Every structure is written in C-alpha cells, then in structure tokens.
Amino acid sequence: MRHSRRHFLDAGIHNEHGYKSHNCIRCGLCKSRLFAKTENHLFPSTVLAIVLSIFVFPLKTQAQAWVNPAHTLSTSLSHSLNWSDSIVADGIRVPGGTVINQQITLEAEYVPIDNLAIRAAIPFVLPYYGGSGGFLGPHGDYDDGSVHFVPQDFRLDARYMIIDAPIAITPLLGVSLPMSHYEVQGFAAAGRGLKQMHFGISLGMTLAPWLPELYLHGIYEFSLVERFDIAPETASFSQNRSSASLQIGYFFSYDFQAYIASDLYLQHGGLNFGDYGSNLERWSTLPKIIRDYHDPILHERSILLGGGMSYALSDSLYYDVYFRLQVEGNNTREARIIGNGISWQLGI
C-alpha cells in the first residue's frame, strides 16, 4: 500500500497559530511536513494519502482513509500472482492440483471536490490449473491446463473523508459488476460472477508529533451480494461477506516506505466441506446441483499476513511490491501471493 506525497498539496499546513499556510511545495509525506526543520511547521496528525494494494481476493483493501487534494488524478497498473497446490478445509490441507492465478488491474481515481474521491477499477484474471485434482478432479471449463484471459468484475467506488485529524475517517460506497460470463466452477474459476454493493469505512492516523514517520491504517468492508440462483438449492446460501485489513507502515526516508499488514476475508454463509466428513465421505448425500456448483457457494474464510515496500521514482511516479501468505483458512485454496505495481499522479 503506497502512500502519496501529494495528499496535502492544497490542504495547507497548520502553523503555530493554528492557521494554514500554503508554503509547502510538496505534499503527503513531504519534506516540509514530515521532516520539517523550520519553526513554522508543526507535525500534522494526518500526513498520508493511501493508494491501495491489489490482492487476489475481492477485498483488495480499496477504502483509503486519506483523500488526495481536489482535482488530483491518479492512475495505476498492478500485477499479482497467487500460487496454490492445496485446498484448506477444517484445518486440513487437501491436495488439489496446482493453480496459478494472475491478476492485472487498471485503476483510475479522481478527486472532483475536497474530500471526495471517485475510483474505477478494471481487473483481468489469468487462471491456470494443472493436475488431477484429487477427490474432486477437474470440474470446470478452465480446468483444462491452459491459461485463460478473463475480464472479471468492474468496480466503482466513492469515498468521502469526514475528518482527517487526529484520526482520518472515510466511509465508502461501491458497486461491482461482472464484465463477462466467466467460469465460476472449478479449481481455476475466475470468481463468483455476482453483482455486489460495498459499504466500508477506513481509519488512519500517524503518531505525530512523537513519531510522525509511523502510520496506522485499518479498513472494514461489508459486501451485499446477490444470490447464486442457478437453482433454488444454490440460492439458499448467503453470498454476503466481510473483509478487513490492518496495516502498520514506516517512512525510512522521503522516498521509501515499508509496511506489515494482515488481511481478513470472510463469507457470512455457504457450504462447509467439514459438514460432510473429514474425507468428504458424505459428499454424495448432497443434491447433484450443489455438488456440481459448490465452488461459488463455499463458506470461505482466509487470514493473510505479509508486507510490502514502496519507492517514489519521482514526485508523481511510484513503484510498489508486496507479498501475502495465508496463515489460516477454511473452504478455500491456500494463498501465496506476490505482486507489484506502478502508480502515477497528476494535479489537473
């Protein structure tokens, strides 16, 4: 998750009299704010504008606590890779063939007025499956040993920063719509293919004035999702979910930052493998339509730990790398994720 130095370009600086001055020529974690040496610069409570990390999971921590100045345009191109060779169910890892899922995401965000940001994201996934699949075997059109290029779910968000100090508080409202009729079943399924509404809130703060280089950021998002209604049996399962992320980061210099993070993904309903025996010996008792379309109705849970780094190549160009490892999960594939991205910002 990369933090922009452009955030306070127009926000101004609180001087010793409590007023704002506009003599800061750089913004966000700019030298005149974070590493201020002059007498009329005090450390602010919020010094960051966060640009998201891209994960394989739908959570994507897209709600950001800080909003860039009005008339700022941000764009990014990111790539992630998730490698997995097993399924996690009730604490047991079951061999499930090798799955490599790549995601390429194009994003743009614009701030039309103070504190309001509008963001659009277009993800493309490239799932690949190789293997026998163990008990279940290949069971989707993409489980054919080929790499598939799939437009996934277009997402549009609006977020509004209510306050920025001492804690930045920013609610979010968003929608997601499938861009294609992609495969939802199989080891290499591209997603669930469902329409969604997202409601979230982000909180962010620094430890200024004591340790202004250190920042904390938390996100919670609830997604209201349509049912998978291919049959009444599949429509009986809730598709709503929660996602959350906690991040602690530190700026080692004006241009370089690193962070550690934890992410949660939780479906609020769905099919649980463990209900049908430790070896799925009661799997055959399920209706055939449930067995055939179990992937998009699974009661998934995943907790990830990891971190990342960001480097400012210039005042407007940034490069990011990150990784995540799954530490706990159920009814899902294990996750080993690496990713990188490049971002560009412009005041217009």
Q: Would you tell me the overall average pLDDT?
A: 82
How many β-strand stretches?
18
Helix content: under 10%
Q: Count every helix, treating DSSP H or I runs of 4 or more residues as helices.
A: 3
Which percent band covers the strand fraction?
over 45%
Order of helices and strands: EEEHEEEEEEEEEHEEHEEEE
Shape category: elongated
Radius of gyration: 22 Å
Strand order of the largest sheet: 5-6-7-9-10-11-12-13-14-15-16-18
The biggest beta sheet reads:
12 strands, antiparallel, barrel
| Structural class computed from helices and strand pairing | mainly beta
General description of the model:
By secondary structure, the protein is mostly beta strands. It is 4% helix and 51% strand. The protein has three helices and 18 strands. The strands form three sheets. A twelve-stranded antiparallel β-barrel has the order 5-6-7-9-10-11-12-13-14-15-16-18. The longest helix is centred in the C-terminal third of the chain and has 5 residues, at 288-292. The two termini are 24 Å apart.
List the helices and strands and how they pair.
Blueprint: E1 2-4, E2 13-14, E3 20-21, H1 31-34, E4 49-51, E5 72-89, E6 92-113, E7 116-130, E8 150-151, E9 153-160, E10 168-178, E11 196-207, E12 211-225, H2 232-235, E13 241-251, E14 256-267, H3 288-292, E15 301-312, E16 317-330, E17 332-333, E18 336-347
Antiparallel strand pairs: 1-4, 2-3, 5-6, 5-17, 5-18, 6-7, 7-8, 7-9, 9-10, 10-11, 11-12, 12-13, 13-14, 14-15, 15-16, 16-18
